Amino acid sequence: xxxxxxxKWYEENKRDLPWRGINDPYKIWISEVILxxxxxxxxxxxxxxxxxxxxTVFDLAKATEQxxxxxxxxxxxxxxxxxxxxxxxxxxxxxxxxxxxxFDELRKLKGVGDYTxxxxxxxxxNKPVAVVDGNVYRVLARLFxxxxxxxxxxxxxxxxxxxxxxxxxxxxxxxxxxxMEFGALYCTPALPDCPACIFYNVCQSGPANTALEYPQKxxxxxxxxxxxxxxxxxxDDHTFVEKRTKKDIWKNLYQFPLLEYNQKPESMVLxxxxxxxxxxxxxxxxxxxxxxxxxxxxxxxxxIFARFTYMRIPGTIVLQYKHVRLNDLHQNPFPVLIANEIKxxxxxxxx
Length: 351
What we know:
It is built from 14 helices and eight strands. It has helices at 3-13, 25-34, 40-53, 57-61, 65-72, 79-95, 103-107, 114-125, 134-144, 153-166, 172-185, 267-279, 336-343, 345-350, and strands spanning 224-234, 238-243, 254-255, 258-261, 287-291, 295-299, 302-312, 322-325. The strands form two sheets. Strands 1, 4, 5, 6 and 7 form a five-stranded mixed β-sheet that branches. A three-stranded antiparallel β-sheet has the order 3-2-8, with no helix packed on it.
């Protein structure tokens, strides 16, 4: 693989992105964490919002968890946001606000794996450490027709060693960005234009018309189906929310009182559980105002069917939830599933 050919392609085709052409490890770190499991078009507004709200690592270290989660709302994989806050505090306290240059030292930071550490070390300090993300896996798997599953321990070691072997060590930062960009823009998951590829003559899958067979993966986890029944309980101009604290999806985000099932519940069961598990009454008087249809929400290895039931309850009922004015709901960080429902609340309550 000719690195000079790749670097030339990169210079002529690279996208103009706000974190390109800078060597600020703080901003590179923010961009790389946001772009994990996220498309550039989706992640860019979040990046811009973050660096505007928290221009330096010192600003982020002083932020509240609620503020960080609110800025992250809708991006998913919320543990990334919590790791950002934790790591910012570590960098300020342990490193006086200066990110370490060494790969192994960067790896010690919470939420910083091999890829992110390599990106910071090479992009900012030109350290000769290869990055291996999904785009790099795809490019290398196709170029060398490697059938080792990329999600196996053997595959991770094999691809990491190959990437390091091919790395242009004098131009490590630019080379790493170039090979990722090549995978993102040219050697794409679907319909790559192999005959026009700059590496067609040396590629082991393009001429054989087998590019779409690579990279290969072992079978994934079984998909879990969950039914979430949310209750928007109204007392005058207030409602109730709670913070998710268990080790599960959306930890530390807020939600309306919830009943969860592994299959669609019967109405009789649902309202019996509402009385005993949420209202803690044997037979409460309440009025159902509206009930949404089930909304399908896909996560990795999970499918959630969520429904929202709007109810008015007497002011005499005291619940062990956070009491919030309807107009102040937006101040709390919610999963995007709930945040989208909140945007429609006024319309639902008017009907």
